[in-house]
Specification:
Order of helices and strands: HEHEHHHHEEHHEEE
Shape: globular
CATH superfamily: Vaccinia Virus protein VP39
Strand order of the largest sheet: 3-2-1-4-5-7-6
Number of domains: 1
Number of strands: 7
Number of helices: 8
CATH topology: Rossmann fold
Radius of gyration: 17 Å
Length: 210
């Protein structure tokens, strides 16, 4: 992927709550996940349960996440310490502290790919999808037809019962897609309070005959 200048990396740690994302996605052993890469924290968290394809249109974020993957394999403390100075450094570190060995065992099942999901959905089947807040970047200036096409293309790659996580105020609300239903909000009690200011929405993929 080429050389990386850390000054060119905007996201060095996630600003979202990993516990809420993992619990809301109903992660379980054997899941195959598609995730926005960003700093890599969410892909690493999902990796505990199965395989992950992490995508991003920003090359520097992908290089940064690949560097963290290499540090994880090497059992290097810099896996965390690259994010020193971020307000949520210790909270992210605490989340991974009891999970890191299992994630390291699965690290061969993590792949990175540069791509824009609004232009193409990668091939394969994904039981879980994490979109972060990417809808906020495109939704307001996209016609309803494009929004519906994106959602339909996405769920074509997902089985019945698959779950999608959307972060932020822009979600799939207003799209009349029979196979996509919002999961009612339930009370969650994450150990850490970081990222609680975000709105988290979770959607389930329904059977094709609905």
């Amino acid at each position: 992927m080429g050389r990386l200048n850390l000054d060119d990396v905007f996201f060095k740690l996630t600003m979202e709550n990993l516990e809420i994302i993992v619990e809301g996605l109903e992660m379980k052993e054997g899941d195959s996940s598609l995730a926005i890469c960003s700093a890599g924290d969410v892909p690493f968290a999902l990796l505990e349960f199965g395989s992950v394809l992490a995508v991003d249109y920003n090359s520097n974020q992908l290089k940064y996440a690949q560097l963290r993957k290499d540090l994880l394999v090497a059992n290097d403390e810099n896996f965390f310490d690259l994010g020193i100075g971020c307000y949520n450094y210790f909270l992210v570190r605490d989340y991974f502290s009891e999970r890191l060995e299992k994630i390291r065992v699965n690290v061969k099942n993590l792949d990175f790919r540069k791509m824009n999901l609004f232009r193409a959905i990668p091939r394969g089947e994904f039981t879980k999808v994490y979109l972060s807040n990417i809808l906020g970047y495109y939704w307001n200036r996209s016609p309803i037809e494009m929004k519906s096409k994106f959602a339909l293309d996405l769920i074509k790659r997902m089985p019945q019962g698959g779950v999608i996580c959307v972060v932020g105020p822009e979600n799939f609300k207003g799209l009349e897609i029979d196979r996509l239903s919002i999961i009612p909000k339930r009370k969650m009690n994450p150990k850490s309070s970081y990222g609680l200011g975000w709105e988290y929405s979770f959607y389930r993929v329904a059977p094709k005959n609905l």
